[in-house]
Amino acid sequence: MWGGAFSVGVLSAWSAAGTRPQFDVVTGVSTGALIAPFAFLGSAHDDTLVHLFTSGVADDLVATKFPVGLIGSSLLRTTPMRRMVEDFITQAVLQQVAAQHRKGRRLLVLTTNLDTQRAVVWNMGAIAKTPADRTR
């Protein structure tokens, strides 16, 4: 999570300096996948990022289950992640991601199934598109 906090600090400082660009492509893995949608959407979401990484929300995501790895399919508790996604990746955020995707910008995140060692790249803009958009 420290790397995430550093990234959020850099993005916020860049916004404060007034020199933060609009990125054509944003990618993320692990903590970066949590930051990516908000970095993609720009400085209007800096307050959300700062909140995630200073309020303890992100810290809750890495709390391990006890005993570690002996019960269930994950070393980490899934409830905090589900709650964070439900609270912060709102319909409005998804609509904004889809709108930027239609303009040619791309938001990609990577997840890995540790059991199969298979990585998957998710095109979040394509996923966020509304049913009407999918017919275009």
TrEMBL record:
Which keywords belong to this entry? Lipid metabolism
Annotated PNPLA domain residues: 3-113
Segments crossing the lipid bilayer: none
Looking up SUPFAM superfamilies in the UniProt record yields: FabD/lysophospholipase-like
Q: What is this protein called?
A: PNPLA domain-containing protein
According to its UniProt entry, this protein's organism is: Mesorhizobium escarrei
